[in-house]
């Protein structure tokens, strides 16, 4: 025995601290030593199959690492041998069990946990919990009570602000539908389209007015002027959507019942074309080329109840606020006037605010639906700016350069945004975020300047009429389905404001 160990040391026998898996026992090694030199061992690569000879001899090969009387050194090239970790079989089985077992949803008592820890120490020689490398858990660990983290790490089960942000909504870059609008007048100062609460889109094409039912796609010709030289210069729906006001180039203001397709009234008080109209309950306001604004009470025979003289040139923008307190007017004299509500009676009226910052004609005027005292205005080719006003204080809240003629502005009722229609040079629609005034999207497709914008009653679709004789429908304010149902339910509960019959 001593002689064998001495000879093994002389021949450079490599001693291993740990047993090699699948290695022959010590008795077999001694027998192999005594039997003399044999064939060299074959190293099997883990990526390639070994080339084994089918020999009938059962004499085992020599111990790996020993070849004759020479010492075999460690291979210098990678892949010559494999790494054998020094881990017990019991630890590997325990690790496999911990990785594959299912989490127990039931909470364990402290006594049971102490028992399990004691069993693990007695059986394995170590604590199972301390041997875990990765700890998988459904909830983050909470900090101890009174713990102050100097690194300002937040221990919370809620999502961080960055991960909780919703992605921006999808805005189609192409129109949902394109309609022909032949012979639409290419006149910046006219207002030729309007969308009713009953889902009818009124379009003025030269001397005719057409109604397009968005729900059914039906087209109705409501009227045609008798004289060929007289054209339609403005259209506006009452809030309930059952009456349409029509302004003409012959200084008339007509009132039509769409259910009966019949003209109810023909009101003559202006002496020039009526380019813009706006409703406030039963008061219809009309702006003319002379710069005058007339209030018409459509319930009474003497309809002309007030005259507002604050512009020196044509009134091309006119809009009542949603609460009916103020009337905003924009004119070709670059002025924006804000008028108080009048309930009738003659006399002269003065505006509560007059804004003179625009350097071009102001046609685009729009009231914010969630801030009743906020007004947006847009200037023409010489100005090209969009301005946001506080009509109570008279302050200009923000200004943005649109780099093109501003023809129309619409506030969204579904988002804190508004859309503007433009002329040269892009002829595009631009969606703006409020109050940051950053661009959300640009919608292009028109080949000529946009004349007017109007919005569908559900607030999801914007219709644009352009000088290229097309109407394009853009679904740029699509609502979330859940919010849409809530809004429809709220709208169905509202009753009509007007209870008096129109004579």
TrEMBL record:
One GO cellular component from the entry?
anaphase-promoting complex
Q: Which CDD domains match?
A: WD40
One Pfam family cited in the UniProt record for this chain: WD40_CDC20-Fz
- Sorted alphabetically, which keywords does the UniProt record give? Cell cycle, Cell division, Mitosis, Repeat, Ubl conjugation pathway, WD repeat
Which segment of the chain is annotated as a signal peptide? none
Q: Where are the WD repeats?
A: 232-266, 308-339, 443-474
Biological process GO annotation list? anaphase-promoting complex-dependent catabolic process; cell division; G2/M transition of mitotic cell cycle; metaphase/anaphase transition of meiosis I; mitotic sister chromatid cohesion; mitotic spindle assembly; positive regulation of anaphase-promoting complex-dependent catabolic process; positive regulation of mitotic metaphase/anaphase transition
Per UniProt, residues of the CDC20/Fizzy WD40 domain are: 179-474
Annotated region (Disordered), positions in chain? 24-84
Q: What pathway annotation does it carry?
A: Protein modification; protein ubiquitination
Biased composition, class Low complexity, residue ranges: 35-46, 56-70
Entry's InterPro entries? Cdc20/Fizzy (IPR033010), WD40/YVTN_repeat-like_dom_sf (IPR015943), WD40_CDC20-Fz (IPR056150), WD40_repeat_dom_sf (IPR036322), WD40_rpt (IPR001680)
Q: Which GO terms fall under molecular function for this chain's record?
A: anaphase-promoting complex binding; ubiquitin ligase activator activity; ubiquitin-like ligase-substrate adaptor activity
What role does this protein play? Answer: Substrate-specific adapter of the anaphase promoting complex/cyclosome (APC/C) complex that confers substrate specificity by binding to substrates and targeting them to the APC/C complex for ubiquitination and degradation. Recognizes and binds the destruction box (D box) on protein substrates. Involved in the metaphase/anaphase transition of cell cycle. Is regulated by MAD2L1: in metaphase the MAD2L1-CDC20-APC/C ternary complex is inactive and in anaphase the CDC20-APC/C binary complex is active in degrading substrates.
Question: Which family, according to the similarity comment?
Answer: Belongs to the WD repeat CDC20/Fizzy family.
User: What quaternary structure, including any partners, is listed in this protein's UniProt entry?
Assistant: Component of a complex with CDC20, CDC27, SPATC1 and TUBG1. Interacts with NEUROD2. Interacts with dimeric MAD2L1 in its closed conformation form. Interacts with BUB1B. The phosphorylated form interacts with APC/C. Interacts with NINL. May interact with MAD2L2. Interacts with CDK5RAP2. Interacts with SIRT2. Interacts with isoform 1 of NEK2. Interacts with HSF1 (via phosphorylated form); this interaction occurs in mitosis in a MAD2L1-dependent manner and prevents PLK1-stimulated degradation of HSF1 by blocking the recruitment of the SCF(BTRC) ubiquitin ligase complex.
Q: What is this protein called?
A: Cell division cycle protein 20 homolog
Q: What taxonomic classification does the UniProt entry list for its organism? A: Eukaryota, Metazoa, Chordata, Craniata, Vertebrata
């Amino acid at each position: 025995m001593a002689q064998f160990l001495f000879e093994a040391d002389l021949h450079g026998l490599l001693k291993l601290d740990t047993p090699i898996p699948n290695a022959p026992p010590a008795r077999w090694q001694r027998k192999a030593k005594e039997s003399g030199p044999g064939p060299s061992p074959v190293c099997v690569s883990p990526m390639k199959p070994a080339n084994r000879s089918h020999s009938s001899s059962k004499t085992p090969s020599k111990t790996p690492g020993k070849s004759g009387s020479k010492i075999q050194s460690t291979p210098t090239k990678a892949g010559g041998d494999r790494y054998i970790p020094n881990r017990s079989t019991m630890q590997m089985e325990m690790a496999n069990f911990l990785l594959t077992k299912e989490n127990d949803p039931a909470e364990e008592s402290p006594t049971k946990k102490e028992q399990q820890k004691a069993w693990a120490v007695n059986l394995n020689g170590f604590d199972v919990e301390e041997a875990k490398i990765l700890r998988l858990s459904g909830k983050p660990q909470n900090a101890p009570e009174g713990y102050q983290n100097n690194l300002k790490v937040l221990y919370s089960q809620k999502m961080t602000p960055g991960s909780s942000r919703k992605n921006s909504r999808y805005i189609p870059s192409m129109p949902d539908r394109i309609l022909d609008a032949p012979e639409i007048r290419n006149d910046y100062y006219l207002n030729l389209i309007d969308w009713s609460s009953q889902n009818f889109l009124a379009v003025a094409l030269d001397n005719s007015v057409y109604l397009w039912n968005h729900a059914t796609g039906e087209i109705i010709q409501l009227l045609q002027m008798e004289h060929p030289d007289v054209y339609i210069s403005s259209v506006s729906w009452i809030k309930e959507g059952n009456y349409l006001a029509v302004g003409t180039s012959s200084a008339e203001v007509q009132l039509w019942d769409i259910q009966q397709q019949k003209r109810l009234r023909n009101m003559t008080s202006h002496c020039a074309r009526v380019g813009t109209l706006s409703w406030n309950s039963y008061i219809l306001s009309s702006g003319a080329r002379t710069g005058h604004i007339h209030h018409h009470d459509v319930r009474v025979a003497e309809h002309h109840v007030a005259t507002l003289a604050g512009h020196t040139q044509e009134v091309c923008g006119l809009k009542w606020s949603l609460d009916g307190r103020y009337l905003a007017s924009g004119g070709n004299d670059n002025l924006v006037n804000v008028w108080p509500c009048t309930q009738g009676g003659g006399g002269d009226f003065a505006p509560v605010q007059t804004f003179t910052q625009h350097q071009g004609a102001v046609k685009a005027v729009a009231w914010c639906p969630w801030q009743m005292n906020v007004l947006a205005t847009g200037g023409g080719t010489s100005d090209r700016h969009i301005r946001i006003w506080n009509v109570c204080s008279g302050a200009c809240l923000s200004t943005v350069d649109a780099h093109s003629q501003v023809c129309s502005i619409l506030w969204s009722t579904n988002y804190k945004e508004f859309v503007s229609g433009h002329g040269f040079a892009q002829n595009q629609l631009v969606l703006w975020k409020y109050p940051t005034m950053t661009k959300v999207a640009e919608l292009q497709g028109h080949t000529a300047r946009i004349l007017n914008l109007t919005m569908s009653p559900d607030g999801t679709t914007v219709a644009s009429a352009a000088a290229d004789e097309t109407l394009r429908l853009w679904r740029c304010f699509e609502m979330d389905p859940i919010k849409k149902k809530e809004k429809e339910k709220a709208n169905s509960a509202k009753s009509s404001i007007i209870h008096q019959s129109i004579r």
